[in-house]
Amino acid sequence: MENYFPENFMWGGSISANQAEGAWNEDGKGISVADLAKFQPNETDYHKQWLVTRADIKSGVQTHDTTFYPKRHGNDFYHHYEEDIEKFAEMGFKTLRLSIAWSRIFPKGDEEKPNKSGIAFYNNVFKTLKKYNIEPLVTLSHYEMPLNLVLKYGGWYNRKLIKFFLNYSKTVFTEYKQYVKYWITFNEIDSIFRHPFTTAGIIEEDYPPQKLEEVIYQALHHQFIASALSTKMLKEIIPNGQMGCMITRSLDYPETCNPDDVLLAQKLNRNNYLYSDVQARGKYPSYIFNEWQKKNINVDMEKDDLDILQNNTVDFISFSYYMSLVSSINDNNKEKVGGNFITGIKNKYLKTSDWGWQIDPKGFRIALIGLYDRYQMPLWCVENGLGAKDTVNEDGSINDEYRINYLKKHIEQMNLAIRDGVKLIGYTPWGCIDLVSADTSQMSKRYGFIYVDLDDYGNGTYSRKNKKSFYWYKNVISSNGEQL
């Protein structure tokens, strides 16, 4: 296959602070919403760990347990970052997507002055990345907002959080402007409907069920305004800075050519585009106002809000892509599959991962073309990968051919999308080093090129070991995607 990757293509990997760093109560860091995510060994409905009640919060803040709150230890990137970045450099990374833990900079979120130890930590991380010529791509808010902002203000439902987020943004833009050019405001901002507590600090039991959708839309609007104003601020502090939005690209197929199935899939795909429409086009799509009116949803907006959105759009669209889904108007008694907190009908043409996520490389190409045709704006795939169970052989090797095959097929389709005219900036596969899974809070659901000796209960040495995929991806990068 002919190679269409541009010479300056940003190959790399992706992690988040709440799943990797650990050190949850060290050096002045405040407790975050991620520190309440529980590992529930016998629970197969992984959605339950994201439904956090006030009772869960009360018990969580009273314990220092890290066994059943594994995001508190992560893979201990906080103490291993130099070793880890050196390994990323050995693979040839051009970029590393990572996040800053808001509660490490502002432990409670509403302080005027930042935590100096938190500032120093990321300074050291960015200096180390610069040492190896790895460009950081930094997410400001990746499921790790300070818990205090939830308990004291009600999360993003309260407009006051815009001010706190901008104070945080201004601080990190100013502190790290010599190191960081590429930024993202909110990770998978659309996830606010899938897990309102983790994404926006909304405690669902605080609101009547019939009110909850309005509350979520209001919180989302506040995040949109915060994102736009943060983008404006970035241009003032870092003139050559680039800001991106980040969405989950949840691609839906109609089950049949029945026009009703097609209309349903179209509706679901359209709903998925809402979030990038607002941040990339600078306005709400017209149908959303009709939907709010029909449902009697009132979203309070200040008089300049729509102008703020219009005048401060993002520079690129970043997204995660793991799977596709099938939708039907007649889905009763049909086998369902899901992943990333989204469910649909099983696609008989696709295989699934160990955790039931449908594997669809060609869907990746469809998603890329659809996004680029809609926005004509640079794209960046910042999450893609296979969560799987790895086995360490007696000789210490880890032969993860399944991961190589998964990534190979997706990179092939990415190459074809570029041939088809898509402007793609980079590719950062998720969990380039094993970390705690977002949806299951497990270590055994591994994505990385680098194995971390740690089990689901926090037992292990935290030592790092290269998998077979490590050397494969190193070759992919050195050949700029030509040798797969």
UniProtKB/TrEMBL annotation:
One of its GO terms (molecular function) is beta-glucosidase activity. PROSITE patterns: GLYCOSYL_HYDROL_F1_2 (PS00653). The keyword Hydrolase applies. It holds the Pfam family Glyco_hydro_1. It comes from the Bacteria. Gene3D superfamilies: Glycosidases. Keywords: Glycosidase, Hydrolase. One of its GO terms (cellular component) is cytosol. One of its GO terms (biological process) is carbohydrate catabolic process. Belongs to the glycosyl hydrolase 1 family. This is Beta-glucosidase. The lineage of its organism: Bacteria, Bacillati, Bacillota, Bacilli, Lactobacillales.
